[in-house]
């Protein structure tokens, strides 16, 4: 597929849209929804981008609600929503977004109907599918591989044996990094209670936005977290004990999927297809324009978090991940095994968790090869 380079006029429009969206996001925080203890922010896509796409054919839904995180592992929606690519592909269908700290809260929002489509880690997607007996969601695309590390205080932890008795943070109970840590600890002989986090190692569930402060204050000794939080900790003096990529064959594992409510998929397949086209288009642009994409991701994070990443943190974090349309379905099976080992679920039946029909349609139209569900596709 050809890349989607941004012309200078579009780039200027995108910068203006970012400024406008910053104000909108600030206002929307006042009326944010709450899921558990995790607050979310809701905003419309930039109005200038909406106008640009308004000439497209009308789709079956007036609005689509999209959830994602203020993490670089969610680079596709961070960039594609802010620069207008998503709105261009969705035409007159308005985009409304909600920002989450971790996957379990996002699943709760999907189940309640507050969002329709979400970028999310594999473990919450697996748990949401299993707990609903296969009725709640479908994984419809890949998004990101890599971008998660266990970083620790080098004065206290030099080897895995030193983890005993220490406090290690994860973003949320049952999220992808939480499962990764608990699985790792189990394979190394540490005993843990997955729900309370108590055991040989104290697992402290901490919002990514405050993890660096907790580390600086000495409240935690390390964290298994996604980017850019891991690189923020490294900038504070932490060291990478485990780069999760090193635990996987060829260094590839699914860190972010795209999921959809089955109710929304059945009612509005054309809207879902448009979102997937936007995702594929954005990923192609990221691959063709990595330097500008990295800057755009930082611009989007600045809007959402009110603080830009330093060049040092941005460069380190960006180098840890890659965007992909491929859901890397074979690694999802392993992720499910990790959830079992961690004690969150019993051996699950993941038959039908994927529906890659629309994604492969979009890929075919773009001249790209189909991707596989590794035997876990819709029946």
TrEMBL record:
It comes from the Bacteria. The keyword Lipoprotein does not apply. Residues 1-32 form the signal peptide. Transmembrane segments: none annotated. InterPro entries: ABC_SsuA_sub-bd, NrtA/CpmA_ABC-bd_dom. It holds the Pfam family NMT1_2. Keywords: Cell inner membrane, Cell membrane, Membrane, Signal, Transport. It is found in: Cell inner membrane; Periplasm. CDD domains: PBP2_NrtA_CpmA_like. The keyword Ribonucleoprotein does not apply. Belongs to the bacterial solute-binding protein SsuA/TauA family. NCBIfam families: SsuA_fam. This is Aliphatic sulfonate ABC transporter substrate-binding protein. It comes from Streptacidiphilus alkalitolerans.
């Amino acid at each position: 597929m050809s890349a989607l380079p941004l012309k200078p006029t579009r780039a200027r429009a995108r910068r203006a849209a970012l400024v406008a969206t910053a104000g909108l996001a600030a206002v929307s925080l006042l009326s944010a929804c709450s899921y558990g203890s995790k607050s979310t922010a809701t905003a419309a896509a930039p109005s200038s981008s909406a106008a640009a796409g308004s000439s497209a054919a009308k789709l079956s839904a007036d609005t689509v609600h999209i959830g994602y995180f203020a993490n670089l592992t969610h680079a596709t929606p961070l960039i594609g929503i802010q620069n207008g690519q998503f709105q261009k592909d969705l035409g007159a269908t308005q985009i409304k977004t909600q920002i989450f700290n971790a996957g379990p809260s996002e699943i709760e929002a999907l189940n309640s109907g507050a969002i329709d489509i979400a970028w999310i880690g594999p473990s919450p997607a697996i748990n949401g599918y299993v707990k609903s007996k296969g009725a709640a969601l479908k994984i419809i695309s890949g998004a990101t591989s890599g971008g998660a590390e266990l970083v620790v205080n080098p004065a206290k932890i030099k080897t895995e044996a030193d983890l005993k008795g220490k406090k290690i943070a994860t973003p949320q109970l049952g999220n992808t990094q939480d499962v990764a840590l608990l699985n790792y600890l189990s394979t190394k002989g540490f005993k843990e209670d997955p729900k309370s986090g108590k055991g040989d190692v104290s697992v402290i569930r901490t919002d990514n936005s405050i993890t660096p402060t907790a580390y600086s204050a000495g409240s935690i000794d390390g964290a298994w977290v996604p980017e850019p939080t891991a690189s923020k900790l490294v900038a504070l003096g932490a060291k990478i004990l485990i780069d999760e990529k090193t635990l996987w064959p060829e260094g590839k594992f699914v860190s972010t999927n795209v999921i959809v409510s089955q109710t929304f998929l059945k009612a509005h397949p054309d809207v879902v297809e448009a979102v997937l086209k936007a995702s594929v288009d954005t990923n192609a642009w990221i691959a063709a324009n990595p330097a500008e994409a990295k800057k755009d991701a930082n611009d989007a994070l600045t809007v959402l978090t009110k603080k830009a990443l330093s060049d040092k943190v941005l460069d380190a974090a960006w180098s840890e991940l890659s965007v992909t349309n491929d859901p890397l379905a074979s690694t999802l099976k392993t992720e499910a095994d990790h959830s079992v080992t961690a004690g969150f679920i019993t051996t699950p039946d993941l038959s039908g968790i994927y529906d890659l029909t629309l994604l492969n349609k979009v890929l075919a139209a773009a001249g790209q090869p189909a991707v596989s569900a590794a035997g876990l596709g819709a029946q």
